[in-house]
Amino acid sequence: MWILMLEAGVAFFLLVFIVWWTMYQGKKPEDQAPAPKIEKQPPTEPPAG
After folding, report:
1. What does R_g of the chain's alpha carbons equal in angstroms?
2. Dist. CA 2–CA 39, nearest whole Å
3. pLDDT band at 26; cut points 50, 70, 90
4. What is the pTM of this model?
């Protein structure tokens, strides 16, 4: 019976560890590239006709 409890404990630990490990992966805000700036163009008039 103690083997089942040990196995359940190890499985729970692995679950918590994997969730913790993946929560903090990825880029930090200071590592992200700034968004490209889009220049606003003046509206063009439709062609006459």
Report:
1. 27
2. 67
3. low
4. 0.48
